[in-house]
Amino acid sequence: RILSRASPHSRASTEAPRAIVMVALDVTTVSHMAPGRFFRDHTSAVNALDFHHTEDALVTTGDDDAIHLYNTNTGAKTRTLYSKKYGCTNVCFTHSAAAVIYGSRNKGAGGAAIDDHAVRYHSLHDNTYLRYFKGHTDAVTSIAMNSTNDCFLTGSADLTVRMWDLRTPKCCAVIPECPAIPYVATDAQGDVFAVTEGDGGIKLYGTNSYSQGAFAQFETYIDNAGKELFPNPDNNPQMRPPAISCLKFSPDGKCLLAVNGSWITIFDAFNGEHTMRIRVPGSGQQQHAVTPMEASFSPCGEYVVSGGADSRVHVWSCSTGYQTGHWRSRHAGLPTCVKWAPSMMLVASGCTEGGTALWVPDPNVDERR
């Protein structure tokens, strides 16, 4: 039983924050979570959210070009900013809780298309842009910040992966000619990063040795026995296997999570063995998800949380592969953005209707037991 810091605000309380307590991350607790706060600050879909790794801060971005900042200790919104000209998506905290980086949404004022795919380094303190990172020629689809230095990775629809340093606008390195739109992830130790391939492959690179090429490659379309997981017996070009749309390392770096369409696959990050495969609830027999869902590891790495096509948030055990339960409340839309706070018993989810929920342990679970 792994201990995690509990969120100090209750489901409906407006009192001052209580003292920090420690709760066990066990099956009972993670199976019974309830909205401690619910916000309707975005007027259209929430397209990304992120927790700061050490501070009590959550940031969300939406298709309405708004950036909302929340204090996860008090459960209150603290600031709203906008990126009206370029839009905002794939938001990610830097090492400072007062600054974020995010991609553009490929549109300008009035919704007109623009030829600007820069990543923006935005100060939340004084609402200024600290730097622009230009080089991609198409939309940025994923951003991953290194946990130990000022470098970050971007994957783009221009089929390249770029490495950047917050201290300079110049690109540090490029992985060119990816076979499909790449997605990127870095491990919490800052030693390894992963890049998806268009054929369902995932390549691993050393942070300090990427120029030597990938040191390992795993497959998501083929299981441990060599069986195709997305068969296409008629070779129909319209039935290609779903591309990876989400890639995450577990907090200890031992596991890797990938979302392909309606499936979540967990790998051993050392040998690529498939350890768990989950169908996203509510997707029926579809291989391709209508709306890609995000999945996230718990702080201890023992559970996986993801939104479902049934508008609920679901949790699975990584050790058994079984679903521990789904949380009783629903979003109005699909909860496409879901993340677990790094050091708190707190989960944030954002949906396609603009709602953001902060999930905490249900205080009534003992009464029901």
Structural key phrases:
about 375 residues, mainly beta, four-stranded antiparallel sheet, about 0% helix, globular
Short summary:
The chain is mainly β and 369 residues long.
Could you please describe the fold and organization of this structure?
With 369 residues, the chain is an all-beta fold. 2% of the residues lie in helices and 44% in strands. The protein contains two helices and 31 strands. The chain has a four-stranded antiparallel sheet. Strand 21 and strand 22 form a beta hairpin. The longest helix is centred in the first third of the chain and has 5 residues, at 27-31.
Largest sheet: 4 strands, antiparallel
Low-pLDDT residue spans = 8-18, 108-113
Instruction: Count every beta strand, where a strand is a DSSP E run of 2 or more residues.
Output: 31
Enumerate how many helices there are, as a single number.
Answer: 2
C-alpha-based Rg, rounded: 20 Å
**First and last CA, distance:** 19 Å
The strand line-up of the biggest sheet is: 3-31-30-28
Helix- and strand-based class? mainly beta
Mean pLDDT comes to 87
What oligomerization state is this entry in?
A: single chain
**Fraction of helical residues:** under 10%
Measured by DSSP, the beta-strand proportion falls in 35-45%
Query: What's the overall geometry?
Result: globular
Topology record:
Blueprint: E1 2-6, E2 22-25, H1 27-31, E3 33-39, E4 46-51, E5 57-62, E6 66-71, E7 76-82, E8 89-93, E9 99-103, E10 119-123, E11 128-133, E12 140-145, E13 151-156, E14 161-165, E15 168-175, E16 184-186, E17 192-196, E18 201-206, E19 216-219, E20 244-249, E21 255-260, E22 263-268, E23 274-279, E24 295-297, E25 303-307, E26 313-317, E27 323-326, E28 337-340, E29 344-345, E30 347-350, E31 356-361, H2 365-368
Parallel strand pairs: 1-29
Antiparallel strand pairs: 1-2, 3-31, 4-5, 5-6, 6-7, 8-9, 9-10, 10-11, 12-13, 13-14, 14-15, 16-17, 17-18, 18-19, 20-21, 21-22, 22-23, 24-25, 25-26, 26-27, 28-30, 30-31
